Amino acid sequence: MALGNPYPSCNGRPASRDATPSASGEAELLAGAELLPCGRPLGRSWQQARDPSGPPDPHRSSCPHCREAVEGLTALDGATRALRAKEQPDIHGLANRIINAVRGEVRLGSMLLLDDPGHDLRIAESAAAKVLRRAADTVPGVRAASCRIITSKERTAHAVTITLAVTLDRPLPGRAEAVREAVLERAEHALGLTVTTVNVEINAVLETFPLRDDELSEMSGR
């Protein structure tokens, strides 16, 4: 019985003995290395391609299997390096995602009585809190992180505690007062919710960035 050729062909010609696994190649096989169709371990071809200062290898330069494998790994390596070099997300975008994730955890909450003569109109606490957070967000330099609504014993009045992240480009007392006014106005005119107190808590600081020239020109033209 004739034995088959132990050396796979490359470019239609029998591969030279240089393409057969050497002692180091056999060690690679024992370690689970992947073999190319030409019989050479993939790791060795990639290592030789990354180290052009090594001795010339006629097999690798003429073998389409080695060349194709190296080209594929080179493209993958370039894509990986490009992903690592990508810029980090801006601070405002990261803060928005964190705040939105926190807001997503809000449950329905209790039902709040609105300022209705029949006392039969109610709104879910989570829905009212969302409206009041958006009111706070209308104040420049403010992002509302959470809003709690506490109902009085008579269930006809409410106290609001709103937690903010703010920039420091303006005095905090004035900014907090602007938030109170925005929340009270929205509670009364948009919801019909009687709010007697708005407590403001600041638990984070947002970075401020200088305006670009086109933004400054736009503001000066207003």
What is the CATH topology assignment of the largest domain? Alpha-Beta Plaits
What proportion of the residues form beta strands (DSSP E)? 15-25%
Number of contiguous helices: 8
How many domains would you count in the coordinates?
2
Relevant CATH superfamily of the largest domain: Cation efflux protein, cytoplasmic domain
Order of strands across the main sheet: 5-6-7
Assign the structural class, choosing from mainly alpha, mainly beta, alpha/beta, alpha+beta, or little secondary structure. Answer: alpha+beta
- As a whole number of angstroms, the C-alpha radius of gyration is 34 Å
The CATH architecture of the largest domain comes to: 2-Layer Sandwich
Structure overview:
This protein is of the alpha+beta class and 222 residues long. The protein has two domains: 67 residues, no CATH class; 115 residues, Alpha-Beta Plaits (2-Layer Sandwich), CATH 3.30.70.1350. Helix content is 44%, strand content 18%. The protein is built from eight helices and seven strands, in the order ββαααααββαββαβα. The strands form three sheets. A three-stranded mixed sheet has the order 5-6-7. Helix 2 crosses helix 4. The chain is elongated, with a radius of gyration of 34 Å. The N and C termini lie far apart (94 Å).
